Amino acid sequence: MAIMPTRRPEWLRVRVPTGENYEELKRLMRSKALHTVCEEARCPNIGECWAHRTATFMILGSICTRSCGFCAVATGRPMAVDWEEPRRIAEAVQQMGLRHVVITMVNRDELRDGGATIFAATIRWVRRLNPDCAVEVLTSDFKGSHEALKVLMDARPSVFSHNVETVPRLYLRVRPQAIYQRSLDILRTAKEMYPDIPTKTGFMLGLGETHDEVIELMRDLRANEIDILTIGQYLQPTQQHLPIDRYVTPEEFREYAREGKAMGFRHVESGPLVRSSYHAWDQVKAAGVETAVAD
Predict the structure, then answer these.
(1) What domains are there in the chain, each with its CATH number?
(2) Which of 37, 57, 71, 75 has the fewest CB atoms nearer than 10 Å to its CB?
(3) pLDDT for 42 beyond 50
(4) Residue 245 zone, left/alpha/beta (φ > 0; ψ -120 to 50; rest)
């Protein structure tokens, strides 16, 4: 059994979030009763991103119906759907003057469509008030529902993303209510529905995976025509979450990036602090893919 590392290496040290932009965004989120994955998931990059006036909005509340072993978002019984939320998010994007926004969600397995309808409404509201803003979405697996996925894809997000999070062998421990093949199916089907919309996924290292398992996972993803891949270090949010198996070195991350490019991914963002929405616009630009900004 692996012994959990006790000290973060230098390459994982981040500054405490401060500054005028950080405080302004914090007030904006509170004033519009909005949630961000930056806060709810305790992202280590919140200081940098908010200082540059970028944030990842999280819709459908702050309570998730699943209990993934790595995630700091609270699990429980969600509140009622707030149909005014899409408009408030669009207004926040407008106030921030964003050209590329990332919108994610909690899992809402109790809803018939998994939240797809309000997600589609959010995309349309953002486009209505911000016609020059690209809208990247990071979604759940909608329990494998192609019908729900079609509702969301018909709103034509600029980038469709769904994270596989880890290698198949670790799913029962890391994502107990998810199914690896179901995640692959959602990613593949999104590409089949709209081949011109870039697809994206991400996973973490440091949960006990082997090098060979990571390479096999990357091959699976490329076989399903994923355009953009993100790879980052797992960081334990609290003592109640899964322990860190090890800290992966920056050189190992660079090696996975080289492997991914050789496999044919349009872009691989790989590093200890990388998260799916970290420098999202730069990822799309580096991939050289076009993103629609209007219907």
Answers:
(1) 24-287 (3.20.20.70)
(2) 75
(3) yes
(4) alpha
